[in-house]
Amino acid sequence: MLEQEIYDNLFEQSISLLEAGQNACDHLLADRINDTRFGITLRLRPNKDVLKRISDFQKELIQIDKSQYYPPIEDLHLTVMAIIACEEGFNINKIPLEEFKMNIIKSIDGIKSLNVAFNGITCSTDALLVQGYSLNSNLDKLRNNIRDNFKNSSLSDSIDSRYPIRTAHITIARFTKKINRPKDFANMIKENRIKDFGIIEFKEIELTLNDWYHTNKTINLLDCFTF
Fold first, then answer.
1. What is the pLDDT of residues 2-49, one digit of tens each?
2. What is the rounded distance in angstroms from the CA atom of residue 109 to the CA atom of residue 226?
3. Which residues contact 24 (CB under 8 A, 6 or more apart)?
């Protein structure tokens, strides 16, 4: 399934529910301090220009409903792969970190850059996403390399354990309660379905120990790899 089809399906399945004020809520966000779900992620960090455009759009959303959770720019990211999905009580000392790194280095070999265009907004019942589109096959190639290189190792069960990731999106809002002014909020999404957030040529990728929300103050940068 193409990225556009995935984004369109999400929008079509969710927008009428958001408009009717029937959004889902993430009740764990209010107690993030006591959230013990941690994992390991391979991720990309947007540049300043794209972050500025996202931040400006978040401010427009806040004018309609400030009660939702809008991740600060330092938390925004594009997940390449959840190497180990976040789970309660995760202990990094029990995993072969150096083996992880070697498999990632092997997976990156031959990939020169990742080019992604960020264009438009879509939604699920519990979040808003900036739509990302790979401009070449390198992101898919990298993800497939990672799956292949981890497949025959002791780490095979950890990769994509929640769901196989197929898009290049950035989560820019999460719902913590029922939407205030849901029709206005839904209209804002509709009006920005093709909003341009910019293009990035990524030249480095981060391996992080992170909580569920990639809260910057809890992030432990385990390594950074360049293409």
1. 899 999 999 999 999 999 999 999 988 877 778 889 999 999 999 999
2. 10
3. 125, 126, 175
Residue with tokens 């399945």: 13
- Kindly state the tokens that stand for 78: 């594009």
Name, in order, each residue with C-beta under 8 angstroms of 124's C-beta and a sequence gap of 6 or more: 10, 13, 14
Sequence-ordered alpha helix ranges (H) in 73-117: 97-108
Structure tokens at 86: 């976040």
| Averaged pLDDT, 187-213 | 97
Q: What's residue 176's pLDDT?
A: 95
Residue pair 62/181 in contact by the 8 Å Cβ criterion: no
Query: pTM of the prediction?
Result: 0.94
pLDDT at residue 36 in the model = 87
Does position 162 have pLDDT exceeding 70, yes or no?
A: no
Question: Could you tell me how many residues make up the chain?
Answer: 227
> Do 42 and 104 meet the contact criterion of CB atoms below 8 Å apart?
yes
Q: Is the separation of the CB atoms in 85 and 162 below 8 Å?
A: yes
Domains observed in the chain: 3-226 (3.90.1140.10)
